[in-house]
Design a protein that fits this description.
InterPro entries: BP-dependent_transpt_permease, MetI-like, MetI-like_sf, OppC_N
Membrane topology: Multi-pass membrane protein
CATH class of the domain at 44-56 and 107-264 and 292-312: Mainly Alpha
Number of helices: 16
Organism: Oceanospirillum multiglobuliferum
Protein name: ABC transporter permease
Distance between the termini: 41 Å
Shape: globular
Strand content: under 5%
Order of helices and strands: HHHHHHHHHHHHHHHH
GO biological process, one term: transmembrane transport
Largest sheet: none
Amino acid sequence: MTTQSQNKLPEPTPSAWQRFKDSNIGHSFIRDRVAQISFTIFLGYVIMALFAPLIAPFDPYDPNQIDIMNSELPPSWDAENGDEQFWLGTDAQGRDLWSTILYGTRISLTIGICAVLLQATIGIIIGLIAGYRGGRVDSLLMRFADVQLSFSTMMVAIIVLAIFQASFGTELYQELAMTMLILVIGIAEWPQYARTIRASVLAEKKKEYIDAARVMGLGPIRIMFRHILPNTLSPILVISTVQVANAIISEASLSFLGLGMPVSQPSLGSLISSGFEYIFSGAWWITVIPGVILVVLVLVMNMLGDWLRDVLNPKLYKG
């Protein structure tokens, strides 16, 4: 019997793909067709945004590749006035709409992801401190979060961006538009993370492994970030997916109001805004096509967020 146990080969270590398939997320993803389609579409958006300079037939930032005589050309499937080299048509400046959408998607995704990273960083730090310290510190930070939540993101963004543009001029604002949008949207939405993390910390800090960490002499910072934070990542993932979509919508709304990205560096929102005045003159594609692209992007991200919420919540997950 000893010889048999010695000759028995060790079981091979499962691959990363096999571990993913055996997990709840992998099992649910393989069975959920909606999640697969949503993830595939979102991955397509990311790939097109990352490789926009390689995919786009024209560079919308290069004046040498823009001809004002090509302005407001309809899509190529319009047999009467369409041009084969502009399959989605052109905008009012004569730029290829397909190329402009690719670059605009990159800008919209960059603003959405960076704004969420900023709000998550601020919210996680404040939520950890409030939940772990408790007492007056908790009350002070949460009241500050309540005050922040009483103001809508759009209202704060409009006031801050309008004051900045009026104080420092339109030219400087256009140079710093992306940075300002990331800062305003990121700072305005941190309470969503802070309140969620605080609730998780209040539950986690009463568990035995936290008492054991204190007995071992670990400091509060190490306990919060090395032990409590990893056990609160599930709701953060769900919130982040939805918040990226919200940040993109906020940027598009601000661009539509003239407080977003400049026309020279268009996002999806500024594309919709620039073409809105031409929609009733027959150039519907300048607004409608970027609008559809934006709606689909936000829709698939919200559907991925709903799927993650169901999978990561044991009370909702049905297997």
